[in-house]
Amino acid sequence: MQETTVESLGDRGRRQPRLVLRLNTGVGQAGRAFDAEVLNLSRNGMLVRTGAELSLDDPLEVVLPQSGAVRAKVVWFADELYGCSFPEPISEEEMQAANDVASIEDGGGAARFGVDHETLGQRIKRLRVASGNSMRAFAELVGVSKPTLWKWEGDQVRPRHETMQRLASQLGVTELELVYGAPGRSNPAPNEDTNASLADIVRACRQRIAKAAGVDTACVEINIDWDRDGDATT
Fold first, then answer.
1. Is the pTM of this model over 0.85?
2. CA quadruple 18, 24, 25, 30: dihedral, nearest 10
3. Could you tell me the pLDDT band of residue 217, with boundaries at 50, 70 and 90?
4. Is 197 in a helix, a strand, or coil?
5. How far apart are CA 49 and CA 174, in angstroms?
């Protein structure tokens, strides 16, 4: 890995106010998930601290409150600090959600909470119930016993890495979101949110399409043509 200068993100960061915070979360790159801490955040990028060695060449994802996994690119690094840029700006609401989570302490308990204020076990249970599976049925899908699943959901035992991947696949989230939080999974779909603006709906749909297709959000375009009667066709 070759070190680069910090000027690129610094210049970009001056375009938007940066939010200084300490947000414990996770980053994923090349199919692996790592512990991370977001030290500051703007609509255009973020500063991440992690003990993992991230590549400048591969895109990464970071779990943010409200948004879930958001795509980013490493543009510089120094020691354990990584300056990252977003392919498209995040919203003010996403920045505020990150600030709200960063300002809440979990009391230093033994169980680790993700950006959605859930432990891993609570998240597994919520996503399993949302999928409509009983404990017995879901345990069979994952290939474990019901008592093992019960221990996972009770935060008594943590699944191994290879099992975590199967869990994430069955629950319809990435391993990164399963371990560090999947806040968007409990929210209504964009077309069910009557308070969402058209821009928010389009942006959320672009993210979902990009994730399903395995491409960058910038590769997805949604066009609306308005006819003379006021009806829209896409």
1. no
2. 90
3. low
4. coil
5. 21
